[in-house]
Amino acid sequence: MSYGPMHRKEDARFIRGRGNYTDDVRLPGMLYGAILRSPHAHARIVSVDTSAAEAHPKVRAVITGQTLAGLNLAWMPTLSQDTQAVLATDKVRFQGQEVAFVVAEDAYSARDALELIDVEYEPLDAVIDARNALDPGAPVIRDDLEGRTGNHIFDWEAGDRARTDALFEQAEVTVAQDMIYPRVHPAPLETCGALADFDKVTGKLTVWCPTQAPHAHRTLYAMVAGLPEHKIRVISPDIGGGFGGKVGIYPGYVCAIVGSIVTGKPVKWMEDRSENLMSTAFARDYHMRGEVAATRDGRIQAIRVKVLADHGAFNGTAQPTKFPAGFFHVFSGSYDIEAAHCEVTGVYTNKAPGGVAYACSFRVTEAVYLVERMVDVLAAELGLDPAELRMRNLLKPEQFPYTSPTGWEYDSGDYPKALRLAMDMAGYDKLRAEQADKRARGELMGIGVSFFTEAVGAGPRKHMDILGLGMADGAELRVHPTGKAVLRVSCQSQGQGHETTFAQIVGQELGIPADDVEVVHGDTDQTPFGLGTYGSRSTPVSGAAAALVSRKVRDRAKIVAAAMLEASPDDLEWADGKWSVVGDPSAGRSMAEIALAAHSNLELPDGVEGHLDAVTVYNPPNLTYPFGAYICVVDVDPGTGQVKVRRFVAVDDCGVRINPMIVEGQIHGGLADGVGMALMQVMAFDEDGNHLGASFMDYLLPTAMECPSWELGATVTPSPTHPIGAKGVGESATVGSPAAVVNAVVDALGPYGVRHADMPLTPANVWRVVNGDPFRTDLAIP
Amino acid sequence: MQVPATFEYERADSVTHALELLERYGPEARVVAGGHSLIPMMKLRLAQPEALIDINGLAAELGRIAVEGGELAIGALVRHAELLESATATDLFPIFRDAERVIADPIVRNRGTVGGSLCQGDPSEDLSAVFAALRATAVIQGPGGTRTVPVRLFHEGPYETAVGPGELLIQLRVPVAPGTGSAYEKVERRVGDWPVAAAGAVLRVEDGVIAQAGIGLTAVGAAHFCAPEAEEHLTGRPPGAEAFAEAGRIAAEHCAPSADQRGPADYKRHLAAELTRRALATAAGRI
Ligand SMILES: Cc1cc2nc3c(=O)[nH]c(=O)nc-3n(C[C@H](O)[C@H](O)[C@H](O)COP(=O)(O)OP(=O)(O)OC[C@H]3O[C@@H](n4cnc5c(N)ncnc54)[C@H](O)[C@@H]3O)c2cc1C
């Protein structure tokens, strides 16, 4: 068996400081780039004077929007069929937007030279509050687009409006709640950057870049810049965290490439922390109104949702083409309801583009938060315990596969079992008794429950593509003569431990130790095509490809083994990691023996070539649907509004667990993210569009001090559509935990009649909520 | 990568040498101690000093904590971590332990200094409130010798202090008296964050009544980081919950908080009252 807890192969280099990140890569003669950014959220560019910067003795090139316009590269396509300025030509549309790029002999001089560029701006009114974006007189942000007279991007709906409305009309009880899932940022430890090296002699461009989707980047560079694709190599070395923020192509990458072409030297550009927070992919920014229709005894019948989605100045969200709101329409969640309907309106504002990042599974995060908050609002209305209300409405195991009212087909699950386990682990009834005692003494304690169903592992390619590239992923497996193997995959790890997990999958299928399998990833010259790692798709898609390519090799090995055993392949069986004649396991042949034979002069049957390798592409038949039950316990100081997360119980079902230790690590990280979002993280903007969270002094990441010792539990419901029954877990905890924390805090504030409070629940926000005067968390605190 | 603009660098090997260097480089030179306020500002290019005079080699002269002549003397170069670990300081004044435990994080505390904190003059600096509550005295040395300034006159405005160009803060002196209790209460959004608001309290009780009260407040716009009206209210009264609550109310009334992303003004004013009350109660319990 290769499954089971195993130390990550990656750890050896990471804990010794021997990782190799983009910024570690140094090439002879390398130059350094730096970006001049807009101080304004919305302004017309009157003039850009670069002469003083060009005169700096160490500056090799200054590139502006005008330079790029000459190359037809001033604008680039986004992942959502929009365009985005690489370097601004006409206007700047968010604070921090890219205006000019300096290439210099060292990083210090590049920064010095930025101060020598003189840009004259004519400031314009900015659209900051998404709720004002569609006002008749609102400034038009995208006047670059032909015929644009407003800031509306799209309207999109899912579900059955008529049935939903009908259920609402007849309902015994309805509740409604407005809520904001504020703009946050994944803030990976490693910022974005690129090192571009264009070789004029061979015409080959090599780009080192921490990208979650190296193959997609290569193809897009080829399409946009007109470079031949076989002359482009994208290398994504070790990545210091991605979380979806490293899926897209940023202007800085294009600038580094142009810089290298212009100077003939390798050009490295690395963002600093503020640049990362201000300009790269944000997450969420959904203004939602949820409504639930139910019976008096707590049967949820219908849910409807209206969303105003703030997409920033360019529509640059990364998601499958058909789904402008991502997978948000999975918002009916884990419940057996009759009908659901959602409407999403996307708008432009003077903020950075992006929108799908921070481990959100294409906006399942927003969906889960919405429904899990709404269930608690309903519980408060009905005077029912929130766990009990969930239990009454959860889908039953016999309902799977289950088609949801918005068209998803959930693969498998035993939801009540997971919730019961979480409640047992938490000692739910005892906690409620303790809470009652505390309330009697005027102390505030809260218990928050959330139940989530994730939807991960995109495709199928028929329904899901990004810019026309179908979401299917390749794998290649080669077994060397001595029985060691190398697996090449299209996805790219950002800390998920693929080099270990995928080696375990191959080891399991071939009957060899995981240590004997090398996993190669992140280099387009060395790996098969595929769309990469995000939306928790690595194990559901590439993990499946790894299993299937291993089975192809195993089938080949069977024929070789048959020749070795002088038997017919039909008489062989695979047992204990060996091919043997049925009934004679002692004479079985191991993969190492077969591999050597496959490379030897053993005579093989006609039509069978030598060697032991295979290639496959996995096109998932469906998504997989991990789920879980979370319970959070908080104490709130009524005098200061401070929230202490005392306990957090997380029961996750991600199907078969290949490496439970890695699974738990993923969950730990996601839970910390959830605490961060619920309690402290937000990127707010003042009315002029100044970014109020542009450093770690203002954009807070949770530390060990804010995190309790996580209490994890597991149930295992294999996915019936995945070759090894695995479902993916990378984003589950980030998706499921914010609602549990917020529900706990709102529960604690029950004595004040509080039913909802927007994230982040900072001490100030909690205090204001208690005093009946909450502020808008996405705007400057007045 | 955030990188500062160019600057000259000199390492001082004595206080006298540091003062000479300051004179030589003139008003555009800055002292660097722990660098945890100055260097980030330089990297963001909010500060562009022409020269840095590094005083980190002066621990022998400026890095001591000792009781001398009825006062606790704390050198300007004492690191936050050293103050936190000094039994001499924290046994006499537990307020130091309370405050230092919640200033920044261990990495910052290992380098950041007491002198740098006070000289930075940030309106949210924790130690400014602590020393104000303790009624400390600052010792400043310049080319013409040393002078002392009561810490309650040390801060002349946000980021402005009594230390002139060409001068160094060298020491803080805290009067030691029996019957004293002290405490510090801070609300932060997350560990290591600057305070949303914080209050320090020092109480000296004689014959069952408060002989002297010291209240320090930070991040709430309290003039000179203190609350004299509330202190006055307490003087001569027996310590007790009601008196402390009233002192908190008075302290809050006299501060002038402004809204920022840590919180709105009304909340900070509320905290000024609540934290003052709590700090006083804890301080009284420690006498
Ligand atoms: C992440 C982080 C979190 C923080 N959190 C907090 C917090 O919660 N609470 C808090 O109160 N502070 C906090 N701080 C600030 C920190 O405590 C102090 O600002 C810092 O330690 C200042 O001391 P320093 O020795 O580093 O000063 P430096 O940065 O070296 O200097 C600061 C200023 O003082 C001047 N200076 C320094 N020493 C002298 C001297 N002897 N004589 C004359 N001038 C001098 C310098 O020229 C400079 O202008 C935080 C800092 C960071 C980086």
Automatic annotation (TrEMBL), chain A:
<dbReference type="InterPro" id="IPR036856">
    <property type="entry name" value="Ald_Oxase/Xan_DH_a/b_sf"/>
</dbReference>
<dbReference type="Pfam" id="PF20256">
    <property type="entry name" value="MoCoBD_2"/>
</dbReference>
<dbReference type="GO" id="GO:0005507">
    <property type="term" value="F:copper ion binding"/>
</dbReference>
<dbReference type="InterPro" id="IPR008274">
    <property type="entry name" value="AldOxase/xan_DH_MoCoBD1"/>
</dbReference>
<dbReference type="GO" id="GO:0030151">
    <property type="term" value="F:molybdenum ion binding"/>
</dbReference>
<dbReference type="InterPro" id="IPR016208">
    <property type="entry name" value="Ald_Oxase/xanthine_DH-like"/>
</dbReference>
<dbReference type="InterPro" id="IPR037165">
    <property type="entry name" value="AldOxase/xan_DH_Mopterin-bd_sf"/>
</dbReference>
<feature type="domain" description="Aldehyde oxidase/xanthine dehydrogenase a/b hammerhead">
    <location>
        <begin position="16"/>
        <end position="125"/>
    </location>
</feature>
<dbReference type="InterPro" id="IPR012780">
    <property type="entry name" value="CO_Mo_DH_lsu"/>
</dbReference>
<dbReference type="InterPro" id="IPR000674">
    <property type="entry name" value="Ald_Oxase/Xan_DH_a/b"/>
</dbReference>
<dbReference type="Pfam" id="PF01315">
    <property type="entry name" value="Ald_Xan_dh_C"/>
</dbReference>
<dbReference type="GO" id="GO:0005506">
    <property type="term" value="F:iron ion binding"/>
</dbReference>
<keyword id="KW-0500">Molybdenum</keyword>
<keyword id="KW-0560">Oxidoreductase</keyword>
<dbReference type="InterPro" id="IPR046867">
    <property type="entry name" value="AldOxase/xan_DH_MoCoBD2"/>
</dbReference>
<dbReference type="Pfam" id="PF02738">
    <property type="entry name" value="MoCoBD_1"/>
</dbReference>
<protein>
    <submittedName>
        <fullName>Carbon monoxide dehydrogenase large subunit apoprotein</fullName>
    </submittedName>
</protein>
<dbReference type="GO" id="GO:0043885">
    <property type="term" value="F:anaerobic carbon-monoxide dehydrogenase activity"/>
</dbReference>
UniProtKB/TrEMBL annotation, chain B:
<feature type="domain" description="FAD-binding PCMH-type">
    <location>
        <begin position="2"/>
        <end position="179"/>
    </location>
</feature>
<dbReference type="InterPro" id="IPR051312">
    <property type="entry name" value="Diverse_Substr_Oxidored"/>
</dbReference>
<dbReference type="Pfam" id="PF03450">
    <property type="entry name" value="CO_deh_flav_C"/>
</dbReference>
<dbReference type="InterPro" id="IPR002346">
    <property type="entry name" value="Mopterin_DH_FAD-bd"/>
</dbReference>
<keyword id="KW-0285">Flavoprotein</keyword>
<keyword id="KW-0560">Oxidoreductase</keyword>
<dbReference type="InterPro" id="IPR036683">
    <property type="entry name" value="CO_DH_flav_C_dom_sf"/>
</dbReference>
<dbReference type="InterPro" id="IPR016167">
    <property type="entry name" value="FAD-bd_PCMH_sub1"/>
</dbReference>
<dbReference type="InterPro" id="IPR016169">
    <property type="entry name" value="FAD-bd_PCMH_sub2"/>
</dbReference>
<dbReference type="GO" id="GO:0016491">
    <property type="term" value="F:oxidoreductase activity"/>
</dbReference>
<protein>
    <submittedName>
        <fullName>Carbon-monoxide dehydrogenase medium subunit</fullName>
    </submittedName>
</protein>
<dbReference type="InterPro" id="IPR005107">
    <property type="entry name" value="CO_DH_flav_C"/>
</dbReference>
<dbReference type="Pfam" id="PF00941">
    <property type="entry name" value="FAD_binding_5"/>
</dbReference>
<keyword id="KW-0274">FAD</keyword>
<dbReference type="GO" id="GO:0071949">
    <property type="term" value="F:FAD binding"/>
</dbReference>
<dbReference type="InterPro" id="IPR036318">
    <property type="entry name" value="FAD-bd_PCMH-like_sf"/>
</dbReference>
<dbReference type="InterPro" id="IPR016166">
    <property type="entry name" value="FAD-bd_PCMH"/>
</dbReference>
